[in-house]
Write a structure and sequence with these properties.
CATH class of chain B: Mainly Alpha
Order of helices and strands of chain A: HHHHHHHHHHHHHHHHHH
Strand content of chain A: under 5%
Distance between the termini of chain B: 51 Å
Largest interface: A-B, 49 and 49 residues
Helix content of chain A: over 70%
Helix content of chain B: over 70%
Strand content of chain B: under 5%
Chains: A mainly alpha, B mainly alpha, C alpha/beta
Oligomer: heterotrimer
Number of strands of chain B: 2
Largest sheet of chain A: none
Chain lengths: 432, 336, 230
C-alpha cells in the first residue's frame, strides 16, 4: 500500500465516522458491518475478474447459496417434519440424481442412434415419474407440518459460524458445475450463463418451501454473538455502561454490532492476507499471465481451462462465505431479497471503482460504494428537496420525485460506474 | 377421446400464448443479436431499455387518454407507439454518442463494452424507476378479446374455450410485419447489405468505403426501434413493471444464443423456441390429455413437468444445452 | 506512391523511410524475406496504419491524412491477404459491396467484372464462403475491382492457392494492369511475381534494399542468391 492508498482508506473510514456523528453510531456501525461484508464479496469477484478475467454476474446466486447454508447448518431440525416425509424426500432426491447420472452414463456408453435416444428418454421419463411419486406427497406432508411456524425440514442445529465455510463449499460446488459448462467459451457467454444459474438458484430457494420455507422466510436464526436483551440483564455489562455513562439499550445494540465487526474484520483480514499472498505467489503471476495472453499461456503448457475452473470456484466460494455472513448478520433468511442489482451489479461497481486486479482496491471499493449505496437515499432526498423547493409543497411532480428518491441509488451507481470506466478505468487503487 | 376439445385447450393454453410470447422474445432477441453482430458485445442494458420504451408508451397512452383520443376497439397505445419508438431510438443514440463511441475510438477490448453496458443498465433502470416508479402500470384499453372463450364455445359448441386477446393479435401481427421489414431491409437494400457486410468483416467493409459510424448508428436505430416495440408489446400483453424487464434479459439472451448470436434468423427461431419450451414445460397437460384418454384412464396428477415458478430455469437449461452441444447456436452465429 | 514511409505498431517502428511508387497501368512488386515489413507498407498506403513520418501521394495529391474510406473514394483498392471476402454474403453481394461508393447504377461495372472473372457469374448467388480457394481469391479481386480503382494494392494474392490457380491469378492481374489500372503487390512467390513486374522493390528489415525493373532484379546475382533461392 502506498501513502496515497492509506489516505484513501482513511477517507473511507472517515466517511463512516462522519455518518456516526451526523446520524447515529448505531447507523454507522450497521454501515460498517455491511461494508466489511461488501469488501469480502468484492474480493471474491476480484479473484475471478481481476486475477483471471472471468466474467461472473451470478454473484447474487452464490450469495443466496451462502445464506441457505446458514439455514441448513444452524436451524434446529424440525423432527415432526422429518418424520412426516424427510426420508422420502431424501430418497426422491437420490433417485433423481441416480437417474441423471445413469442417463449420462448410458449416453456415453451407447453408440449414437435411435436406440440411444429412446433408452435415454425412457430412462429419464421413468426416473422422473418415480421421483415425482416419491417427492410430491413427501413435500406436501412436510409443508403441512405447522405451516405458520415451520413447514420445512429445518437444518442440522449446528453452530452458526460453521455455516460460513459450508456456504463457501456450496457456492464452490455450484461454480464447479457452471464452470465446467461455460468456461472456455467467449467471456460474455460465461456472463450470460452465470446470470442464468443465479436466477435458477434464487428461484429454487424461493419456491422449495420444504427446504427453505420459501418466501415465508426463516427468521430468528442463531447468532454468534450475544443478544441485546441478555446483555442488558448481565451485571458486568450494566456496570460497564454505567461507568461509560451511556444509555443501556443503545449501548447494548452498539456493543453487539461491535462484536460482529470484530468477527467480520477477522475474516476480511485473513482473506485479504491469503489473497495478497496468492496474487504475489507464482500461482498469482501465472493467473495474470493467462489473463494477459491465453494463447501464449496455453502454448507454454498451462491448462488454462483447469486454472480458470479453480479460480472461478475460489471466487464463488468467497461470495458464498460472504452470503452466509450477510444472512447471519441479518438474523433472517429472505430469499426474495437476493436482487441481482444489489448483489451482483453493485459488487461489480465496487470492484471496478476500487480497482480491478488489486485486492486493496476491491476492499476499498466495497467499503466506499456500500457507504454511498446506503447514504444516496438520504442524500437524494435532501437533493431533491432542495431542487424542488420552488414548487408548491403539494405539487404532484415534487411529491412524485420525493417518493422516487429511493431509486436514485441505481442511477447514481450506474453513473459512478460509467464515470470511473471513462476517466479512471483502472480504479482508485490500480493494479500493480 | 375428444380430439377437438383437446386441440382447443392446447391452442388456448400453449399455442396462442406461445406465439405471442415468442414474438415478444424474438423482437427482443433481434435487438440483442443486431447489436452483437455490429458492435460485438452482449448488451446487458437491453432489458431496461425495453422498460424505457414501455414507459414512454405508458405516458403517451395516458396523455392521449386524457385528451379523449382512442382507437375504438384497438388499444390507444398503438398511437403512442411511434412516439415511444422515437424516444427509445433517441435514448440509445444518445447513449452511444456519450458512452460507447469513446470506447470504439480507443479500440477498447470487448469486455469493456459489456461492463459499460452494466453501467448503462443501472442508469436506465434508475431513470425508469425515478420517472414512473417501480410499480406495475396497466395501460391496455379497447376491446379485450378478438375472440373470447365464451364466444368461441358458443360458436363451435365445444366444451373448451379458445380465447384470443387483442393484445396477442397485435403482438403477433406487429412482430411478423417488423421481421418481414427487417429481413427485406437486410437482404434487399444496399444499406442493409452493408450492415451485414460490416458484421461479417469489419476491415473489408472499411476498404469497400462503408462508413462504420453510419453502420453503428443504423444498428442502434433499428435495435432501438425493435427494443421499444418489444417493450411496449410485452407491457401491453402482460403488464408493465420495470423489474420484469430485467428478468426478461435471461430468456432474451437464451433466445439469441440458442439461435446463434449475431444471426437475425437465429434470434427469431430462438425466440419462438424458448417461448414454446417455457410454456410447454410449465403447462399442466392434464386437461389436454384427459380429453384424449378414455374416462377410465383419467390422469390424476397435473401432468406438469415443472411448476411455472421455474420458467426461467427452462431458458437457462436450453442455454446450457446449446452451449454444451453447439456454442455457435442452431443457425451458426459468430460465437468466437 | 508512398514516400519515406515510417510506421509501426505501438512504439517500435517496423518500416523506416521506405519509398514505393507505381506508375499508371504498371505493375510494381514488393518482395523480401518474412518480417521485412511488406504487409505493413501496404497497410500504411491504405491508411490502415498511422504513419510516424512520410507521406502518401496519389494522383499528385497528398492523401496522408485521409481515412481508408476516403482513399477508397479516390480510387485506391486493397485486397488483404486473409479475410478478404464477406464469407456470409453471396458472390453478387460481395461485388455490390465493392461498388458501395458508386452513387448511381453499377450494372456496367458488374458486367465488366464478370467478364474478367467468368466463374463468378456462374456462382453469383452462392455464399462466397462456400467457394474454393481460387474462386474466393477471384471474389476478393472482383470486389476490389468493383470500386473502379486506378490503383489496386494486393497483399500476397497467391498465398495458399495451388500453382495452377496461381498462374491464373497472375494472368488476371496482368489483364487488370493492361486495362489501365496500376497494380502494387506484395508477393511470396518472388520469381513469378517479378516476371510480370514493371518495377520491383526488395525490402529487408523495413528498409529499401534494391529497386529496379523486374527483369533487372531477376538478373541481379545478389538478389537471386539472397531472395530467389539461386
Amino acid at each position: 500500500m502506498t501513502g496515497r492508498d492509506r489516505l484513501c482508506f482513511a477517507a473511507a473510514i472517515g466517511l463512516i465516522v462522519v455518518a456516526g456523528f451526523v446520524q447515529s453510531w448505531n447507523t454507522a456501525f450497521a454501515i460498517l458491518n455491511f461494508a466489511l461484508i461488501s469488501a469480502i464479496l468484492s474480493l471474491g469477484i476480484n479473484i475471478q475478474w481481476g486475477y483471471a478475467g472471468l466474467f461472473n454476474i451470478g454473484a447474487a446466486g452464490f450469495v443466496a447459496l451462502g445464506g441457505f447454508a446458514v439455514v441448513i447448518v444452524s436451524v434446529p431440525p424440525v423432527e415432526e417434519a422429518w418424520r412426516a416425509g424427510g426420508v422420502r424426500v431424501l430418497l426422491a432426491l437420490l433417485i433423481g440424481l441416480a437417474t441423471v447420472l445413469t442417463a449420462i452414463f448410458v449416453w456415453g456408453r451407447l453408440r449414437p442412434g435411435r436406440i440411444r435416444t429412446i433408452s435415454v428418454v425412457a430412462l429419464l421419463c421413468t426416473g422422473l415419474w418415480v421421483y415425482r411419486w416419491l417427492f410430491d406427497p413427501a413435500v406436501s406432508a412436510i409443508e403441512s407440518v405447522n405451516p405458520a411456524g415451520t413447514g420445512f425440514l429445518g437444518g442440522l442445529g449446528l453452530p452458526v459460524l460453521l455455516a460460513w465455510p459450508v456456504g463457501g463449499l456450496l457456492a464452490a460446488a455450484a461454480a464447479f458445475v457452471i464452470g465446467k459448462i461455460a468456461l472456455g467459451l467467449r467471456s460474455d457467454y460465461l456472463a450470460i450463463a452465470t446470470l442464468g444459474i443465479a436466477e435458477v438458484i434464487i428461484a429454487l430457494l424461493k419456491h422449495e418451501d420444504w427446504l427453505t420455507r420459501g418466501v415465508k422466510n426463516v427468521a430468528g436464526l442463531p447468532r454468534p454473538v450475544p443478544y441485546e436483551v441478555d446483555l442488558q440483564r448481565t451485571d458486568w455489562f450494566a456496570n460497564l455502561a454505567n461507568r461509560l455513562d451511556v444509555e443501556l439499550a443503545g449501548f447494548s445494540s452498539i456493543f453487539v454490532k461491535l462484536c460482529y465487526t470484530a468477527i467480520l474484520l477477522a475474516v476480511l483480514i485473513s482473506l485479504l492476507i491469503l489473497c495478497e499472498r496468492a496474487l504475489k505467489s507464482p500461482w498469482g503471476r501465472m493467473m495474470r499471465a493467462i489473463r494477459e495472453n491465453e494463447t501464449a499461456a496455453e502454448a507454454m503448457g498451462k491448462d488454462v481451462k483447469r486454472r480458470h475452473l479453480h479460480v472461478f470456484m475460489l471466487g464463488s466460494a468467497v461470495c458464498g462465505i460472504a452470503g452466509a455472513m450477510v444472512t447471519t448478520l441479518d438474523g433472517q433468511f429472505t430469499p426474495a431479497a437476493y436482487q441481482p442489482l444489489r448483489f451482483t451489479f453493485l459488487i461489480w461497481v465496487m470492484v471496478i471503482v476500487g480497482g480491478s486486479g488489486n485486492n486493496w482496491g476491491a476492499v476499498l471499493g466495497g467499503i466506499v460504494i456500500w457507504f454511498f449505496w446506503i447514504e444516496v437515499e438520504t442524500l437524494g432526498h435532501l437533493l431533491l428537496d432542495a431542487a424542488t423547493v420552488w414548487m408548491s409543497p403539494d405539487s404532484p411532480v415534487r411529491l412524485h420525485l420525493m417518493d422516487s428518491a429511493a431509486h436514485m441509488r441505481n442511477l447514481t451507481m450506474g453513473l459512478v460506474l460509467l464515470l470511473v470506466m471513462r476517466f479512471r478505468p483502472r480504479g482508485i487503487i490500480p493494479e500493480r | 377421446m375428444d380430439f377437438l376439445n383437446a386441440a382447443a385447450a392446447f391452442a388456448n393454453f400453449v399455442l396462442v400464448p406461445g406465439f405471442s410470447y415468442g414474438s415478444q422474445l424474438a423482437l427482443g432477441a433481434l435487438g440483442v443479436t443486431l447489436v452483437y453482430a455490429v458492435l460485438r458485445f452482449a448488451n446487458f442494458a437491453h432489458g431496461d431499455t425495453m422498460a424505457f420504451g414501455g414507459m414512454t408508451a405508458v405516458f403517451g397512452t395516458w396523455w392521449l387518454q386524457s385528451r379523449g383520443i382512442d382507437l375504438g376497439p384497438l388499444p390507444t397505445t398503438l398511437i403512442a407507439l411511434p412516439f415511444s419508438i422515437v424516444a427509445t431510438i433517441g435514448l440509445v443514440l444518445l447513449v452511444d454518442r456519450l458512452i460507447y463511441r469513446h470506447y470504439r475510438r480507443v479500440k477498447a477490448p470487448l469486455v469493456t463494452f459489456v461492463i459499460v453496458s452494466f453501467g448503462v443498465m443501472l442508469v436506465v433502470n434508475g431513470l425508469v424507476r425515478l420517472i414512473i416508479g417501480p410499480d406495475q402500470q396497466r395501460f391496455a384499453d379497447g376491446e379485450r378479446f378478438i375472440v373470447s372463450a365464451r364466444e368461441f364455445k358458443s360458436l363451435t359448441g365445444l366444451q373448451e374455450g379458445l380465447a384470443f386477446k387483442t393484445t396477442q393479435g397485435i403482438t403477433i401481427v406487429a412482430a411478423v410485419v417488423l421481421m418481414a421489414m427487417l429481413f427485406w431491409f437486410l437482404n434487399r437494400t444496399r444499406t442493409g447489405k452493408s450492415m451485414r457486410a460490416y458484421s461479417d468483416n469489419e476491415d473489408l467493409a472499411l476498404l469497400s468505403g462503408i462508413n462504420p459510424e453510419k453502420v453503428v448508428a443504423l444498428c442502434w436505430i433499428i435495435a432501438g426501434g425493435l427494443t421499444a416495440v418489444a417493450g411496449v408489446l410485452y407491457g401491453l400483453d402482460k403488464i408493465f413493471k420495470p423489474f420484469t424487464y430485467f428478468q426478461l434479459l435471461l430468456p432474451i439472451f437464451a433466445a439469441a444464443v440458442v439461435g446463434g448470436m449475431g444471426n437475425p434468423i437465429g434470434a427469431v427461431a430462438g425466440g419462438y423456441l424458448v417461448a414454446f419450451s417455457e410454456i410447454g414445460i410449465t403447462y399442466a397437460f392434464k386437461k389436454v390429455v384427459n380429453h384424449l384418454l378414455p374416462q377410465a384412464w383419467e390422469a390424476q396428477g397435473l401432468l406438469q413437468l415443472l411448476s411455472t415458478e421455474y420458467k426461467f430455469a427452462v431458458s437457462f437449461v436450453m442455454l446450457v444445452i446449446v452451449l454444451l452441444l453447439r456454442p455457435t447456436g442452431l443457425f451458426r452465429g459468430r460465437a468466437f | 506512391m508512398g514516400r519515406n514511409l515510417t510506421c509501426g505498431y505501438g512504439g517500435a517502428d517496423i518500416i523506416h523511410d521506405v519509398t514505393i511508387a507505381v506508375d499508371k497501368g504498371q505493375i510494381a512488386v514488393v518482395v523480401g524475406p518474412n518480417g521485412a515489413g511488406k504487409s505493413t507498407a501496404m497497410k500504411a498506403m491504405l491508411g490502415l496504419m498511422e504513419l510516424t513520418s512520410g507521406s502518401v501521394i496519389h494522383d499528385n495529391e497528398d492523401i496522408t491524412r485521409l481515412s481508408p474510406q476516403e482513399r477508397v473514394g479516390r480510387g485506391m483498392a486493397f485486397v488483404p491477404q486473409t479475410r478478404n471476402i464477406f464469407a456470409t454474403l453471396t458472390v453478387e453481394e460481395n461485388l455490390e459491396m465493392g461498388a458501395f461508393l458508386h452513387k448511381g447504377d453499377f450494372a456496367g461495372i458488374m458486367d465488366q467484372t464478370f467478364e474478367l472473372f467468368p466463374v463468378l457469374r456462374e456462382k453469383r448467388s452462392q455464399k462466397a464462403g462456400e467457394l474454393s480457394g481460387g474462386q474466393r481469391q477471384q471474389v476478393a479481386l472482383g470486389r476490389a475491382m468493383m470500386t473502379s480503382p486506378n490503383l489496386l494494392v494486393l497483399d500476397e494474392p497467391t498465398a495458399g492457392v495451388s500453382p495452377i490457380v496461381m498462374d491464373e491469378v497472375m494472368e488476371r492481374i496482368c489483364e487488370i494492369a493492361r486495362s489501365g489500372v496500376s497494380v502494387l503487390m506484395v508477393e511470396q512467390n518472388a520469381r513469378s511475381a517479378l516476371e510480370i513486374a514493371n518495377v520491383g522493390y526488395v525490402l529487408v528489415q523495413g528498409r529499401n534494399r534494391f529497386t529496379d525493373t523486374g527483369e533487372a532484379l531477376l538478373a541481379d546475382p545478389e538478389v537471386r542468391s539472397s531472395f530467389l533461392g539461386g
